[in-house]
Amino acid sequence: MVDREILPYRPCVGIVLIGPDKRIFVARRTDTPDAWQMPQGGIDPGEDPADAARRELAEETGVTSVHYLGETEGWLYYDLPDHLLGKVWGGRYRGQAQKWFAFVFTGPEDEIALDGTHGEFDAWRWADPDEVVANIVAFKREIYQSVIQSFRPFLQ
Asked: What torsion, rounded to 10 degrees, do the Cα atoms 41, 46, 51, 56 define?
């Protein structure tokens, strides 16, 4: 049994990519086909979170044509559920500390390329904000609600 209390949170960024119709980019996870999520990923040691957000977005989706809108104030945290604790991220973390960034997508849709380099996603689509929250795994739902609320002015 892993002692949750002694494990740190993994530093991570999340990206809300907003399309021209104010819908949000979501992608289907290859390891959890019922889960559609926004891009996110770890921050490398010494990396600026905004730089990490742009890097992760490009790595996971091929997207580089974006305009920065804003970021969440402070960090948002979630804990892994017991059945994942000690299994994901090499068992080194209890969950994630996330800084979220909002970007407007300014490129053509054919820039979006889930090329399998990371293998994390196998399909993508634009979704309404409420749909984004409804389709995320339960243990991330509270974070997604906070993120959507933070960026609501950009979605209207």
From this structure: -20
What are the residues whose beta carbons fall under 8 Å from the beta carbon of 34, sequence distance 6 or more?
A: 135
Residue with tokens 């997207």: 63
Low-confidence ranges of the chain (pLDDT < 70): 1, 115-119
Q: What is the pLDDT of residues 28-69, one digit of tens each?
A: 988 777 889 999 999 999 999 999 999 999 999 999 999 999
Residue 120 has which token pair?
């994390």
Q: How many domains does the chain have?
A: 1
Give the whole-angstrom CA distance, residue 23 versus residue 127. 5
**Residues spanned by the domain of 146:** 4-155
Helix (H) or strand (E) holding 40: strand 40-42
Do residues 103 and 68 make contact, with C-beta atoms less than 8 angstroms apart?
A: yes
pTM over 0.85: yes
Spatial separation of the C-alpha atoms in residues 6 and 113, rounded to whole Å: 39
